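Re: that chain you flagged

S.,

Sorry for the slow reply, it's been a week of failed gels. I finally had a moment to sit down with the sequence you sent. For the record, here it is as I used it:
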Amino acid sequence: MKTIAVIGAGTMGNGIAHTFAQHGFVVKLIDVSEKALDKAMNTIAHNLNRMAAKGTITSDIFAKTITNIITYTDLKDGVTGVDFVIEAATENLELKLSLFKQLNDLCPHNTIFATNTSSISITQIAAAVAHPERVIGMHFMNPVPLMPLVEVIKGYNTSEEVIQITLALAQKLEKNPVTVKDYPGFVANRILMPMINEAIETLYNQLAGVAEIDAVMKLGMSHPMGPLQLADFIGLDVCLSILNVMHDGFKNPKYAPCPLLVNMVNAKKLGVKSGEGFYDYSENKKGEKVAQQFSK
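Prediction finished late last night. Pasting the structure tokens below so you have them in one place:
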């Protein structure tokens, strides 16, 4: 398996494309937006430059990684001739179902379809294709080139052969794959998102400020990043989407998103991607905390 298609050129998609290309795979990176593809390639080049400057990759690997990635705006052209497709589009069920229905029509029945969803049911996504046994979850962590974990999620119908192929593929990327079952949030986000949500509740109830909450978790629990800063890096809209999936899936109020999180997403304060979240990432602020203005 030498050629991989990656659908979606956003943060996760370009990170997945970068990682496969760096490990010798030819990657067909697909997005409907030429602008998004250009941005993705610039991001990959920037990240490779940083790695080269630190001495973690050679100039030869840098050059080969870039040349291993081919961009496409047409889905049919992008998935032609590939055996493994990874969908990394926006965390939206209807969009994913639409993409998988198209993949079902465009690809041979033995093509493996992986989704990088962080919370949506693999079984539900697999229902969009004629052979659901070939659909699997492959949840990478951000930033993909650096984070060693890949959650491999088995849908209700996923075959053992597809699981083993996916595990072997992750290992070729020098990742540590962990197999988990298909329930809302899987394992990583089922544990992480309630913690982030509780940190937001703590801020909402004015027990402490942004920097103080993050300091407690970094200094007291040895977390490399505080939960509010981590939420900014994940994207507050993504956090809200995952919490909503778990809340709807389990019908348990403990997964209900904090009103502060809802308000911030409605206000388009999404974290790093929008330039402001719990911290201000504008050029003149460099990460100053700002979330108190949304407190109750």
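What I noticed first: The chain has a mean pLDDT of 95.

Talk soon,
D.
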